[in-house]
Amino acid sequence: MNYLKNFRPFYGLLAIAMVLAMSACKDDKNDDSALTLVVDETISAVRANTVTINITGFAEARAGSLTATLDGGTAEELLTTSSNTEVETTYDFTIPADAKLSDTYSITFELIDITLQRTSATTLISVEPLLATTPSTYGFERDGNTTVSYSGQNERLDMVKAMKTYLVQGDKRETTISAATLNDAYANVGDNGNGFFDFTSTKQLKDKTFAPDLDNNFMENLFAEAEAVSQAGTNASNGVAGFIERENSGSTIMVDANGREFTQLIEKGLMGTVMYNQIYNTYFSDGRTGDDVENTTLREGTNYTDLEHHWDEAFGYFNPPLDFSSNWPEAREDEVRYWSDYSNVVDPFIRSNDEIMNAFLIGRTAIVNNDLIGKNTQRAILFEKLELVAAATSIHYINESLKHLNDGQIGEAFHTLSEAWAFVNALIYSPNRRISLDQIETIKETDLGANGNFWNATAVDLNRAKDTLVGIFTELEDVKDQL
Question: What are phi and psi of 233, to 5 degrees?
Fold first, then answer.
């Protein structure tokens, strides 16, 4: 007994050694080589497409389970086994059809062995653009068919053209203007303006008019006044509505008691109260091109989403050729009309054609890619650049009027002053305008002639109007006298 007692220290050391050895074996079993998991780290694909993630793993103690967790949500069980040490499988993930270009999806895979040791790896999935580059012309397709449609805008612009043609005939005394005829055209009675148009259309101008103008009978009052002048046939003078001759052409125009030309106020007025109003207050509103507008499901019976179509309809009111650009060739001037036409007038000085066209193209490409940030950036640019066209065109016609007044050409001055008045008035319609309503009113009713009367217009007054515009639209400072 005493002999064995002497060996007790030895047994204690042996026990400690065995514990250390077992611990070392356990550590070996749980090192990185004993439990591994490898997945594709990054993958990208377009929305609505399915990506396949490759997964390989090793569990020395045999695999217990494999799970996948999307963006921190509920774990999905992919594999349950207690017999294999090696794991080799794939996982399919479909990018949502409404995924935004800025979206990234994170899937964490976790491998657990039968001793409940675990390891994980993560795959990041980014959304690729459906349309990798912006097209050079306004042409967008899906499955080989166009997604662009703005026939209603084309028809309304055709209506404005027909109404102007009729008014010019009244200016030249070739016909007597009828307010009823203009009202029928404005409301498109009977889908052909009550026989006024040589085409049929279910569209109209009146129901697209800026609501306050509609309430104030802005257009109807001009129609009635034009009829009165046309029927009376009297010559215009200060305070008397009538006909006045344009000195350069020898043709006459109808003006109101303040010298304002009806044809210009009606045509350019419709450019503002319908075309700009619809771009700004309808199609560039959040209700039509905001982030929550449907951009996944195609509108029934069409090849476009609501968001795509609304953007195209705004483009239709600007209405340029599909390949419109700066330095537009003179031989193709007949292809631009209304706002794209006047953008072309001031383009040599502010490159408005390129800036506006690029914004429409980049914005539409962003919509195809569901890039809402990109879309919003271009929409903001369009608010700014379309307003700038109206301001620059106003200065252009103020400059023309200064020349005519200097030459003593009253009829010519009234013609260009009417255009200046209408383009300044168009600045009203942008909800993001830089110029205030009071400044617009002062230019129209004081600076273009005291008491709103063109007969009172002076060079000092007109230069004050120009200075006001340049003080607000400072990018026009260097070209204000060349416009």
Answer: 70, 15
Question: What local confidence, expressed as pLDDT, does residue 12 receive?
Answer: 41
Phi, psi of 17 (to 5 degrees): -65, -40
Q: Which two tokens stand for residue 464?
A: 């004050």
Phi, psi of 45 (to 5 degrees): -165, 165
Name all domains of the chain by residue range, CATH numbers in brackets: 32-128 (2.60.40.10), 141-479 (no CATH)
In contact, 42 and 123? CB cutoff 8 Å: yes
Which residue, among 428, 441, 130, 456, has the nearest Cα to 305 in the 3D structure?
130
CA nearest to 110, candidates 68, 52, 73, 151: 68
Q: How many CB atoms lie within 10 A of CB 348?
A: 15
Task: Render the burial of 64-102: b for 16+ CB within 10 Å, e for the rest.
Answer: bbbbbbeeeeeeeebbeeeeeeebeeebebebeeebbbe
Q: What spatial distance separates the first Cα and last Cα of the chain, rounded to whole Å?
A: 120
Q: Residue 67's beta-bridge partner residues?
A: 77, 110
Given 3-state DSSP classes, what are the helix, strand and coil percentages for the chain, each rounded to the nearest 5? 50, 15, 30
Scored b (16 or more CB within 10 A) or e, 438-448 reads ebbebbbeebb
Burial class from Cβ neighbours inside 10 Å (0-12, 13-18, 19+) for residue 168 reads middle
* pLDDT digits 0-9 by tens, 242-270: 999 999 999 999 999 999 999 999 999 99
pLDDT tens for each residue of 391-414: 999 999 999 999 999 999 999 999
Tokens of 469: 């515009």
